[in-house]
């Protein structure tokens, strides 16, 4: 599958002692990926573990990964909070809806619940190298 990356990864954040929140969502939950029968892959967004939740990095593995990551690169450069990304309009169905669902998970607005899709979703904080699951209602 295609791989795209922008900004920092988890290891870089830990090395710099930056507390983070991470959301990872499987391609099999993205309607466009299902329609294309290309459900192998994932979205992962890394944000600061504070009220603003500024975007630090993103990884996408799967069909159309490079096109899905474009807008996030600009928001990282501008040090924008995740709330800005939540206000962007995404076409439906599209691969970039994976970004939208990651943001919704962080803002506790997603229809997907990590307790239901345990093998398809991950939402956790990483502070001082300690990984703690974030429960989503």
What labels would you give this structure?
6-stranded antiparallel beta sheet; 137 residues; 29% helix; 27% strand
Summarize the structure.
By secondary structure, the chain is an alpha+beta fold. The chain has one domain: FAD/NAD-linked reductase, C-terminal dimerisation domain (Enolase-like, domain 1, 2-Layer Sandwich). It has helices at 10-15, 31-36, 65-68, 70-77, 82-87, 97-106, and strands at residues 3-7, 20-26, 42-48, 55-61, 121-127, 130-133.
Assign the CATH superfamily.
FAD/NAD-linked reductase, C-terminal dimerisation domain
Quaternary status: single chain
Question: What is the CATH topology?
Answer: Enolase-like, domain 1
* CATH uppermost class: Alpha Beta
Mean pLDDT: 90
- Coarse morphology: globular
Distance between the termini: 32 Å
- β content, as a range? 25-35%
Number of helices: 6
Sketch the topology as an H/E string, one letter per element: EHEHEEHHHHEE
Kindly state the number of beta strands: 6
**Unreliable spans:** none
CATH architectural type: 2-Layer Sandwich
Counting helices, strands and paired strands, the structural category is alpha+beta
Q: What proportion of the residues is helical, as a percent range? A: 25-40%
Query: Gyration radius, to the nearest Å?
Result: 14 Å
Outline the structure in words:
The chain has helices spanning about 10-15, 30-35, 65-70, 70-75, 80-85, 95-105, and strands at about 5, 20-25, 40-50, 55-60, 120-125, 130-135. The protein is of the alpha+beta class and about 140 residues long. The chain has one domain: FAD/NAD-linked reductase, C-terminal dimerisation domain (Enolase-like, domain 1). Strands 1-4-3-2-5-6 form a 6-stranded antiparallel beta sheet. β3 and β4 (about 55-60) form a beta hairpin.
């Amino acid at each position: 599958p295609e791989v795209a990356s922008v900004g920092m990864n988890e290891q870089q954040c830990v090395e710099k002692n930056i507390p983070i929140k991470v959301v990872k969502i499987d391609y099999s939950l993205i309607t466009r990926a299902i329609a294309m029968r290309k459900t192998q892959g994932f979205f992962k967004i890394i944000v600061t573990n504070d009220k603003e939740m500024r975007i630090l990095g993103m990884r996408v593995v799967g069909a159309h990964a490079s096109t899905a990551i474009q807008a996030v690169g600009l928001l990282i450069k501008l040090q924008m909070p995740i709330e800005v990304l939540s206000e962007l309009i995404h076409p439906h169905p599209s691969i970039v809806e994976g970004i939208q669902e990651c943001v919704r998970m962080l803002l506790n607005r997603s229809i997907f619940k990590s307790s239901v899709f345990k093998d398809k979703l991950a939402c956790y904080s990483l502070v001082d190298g300690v990984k703690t699951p974030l429960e989503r209602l």
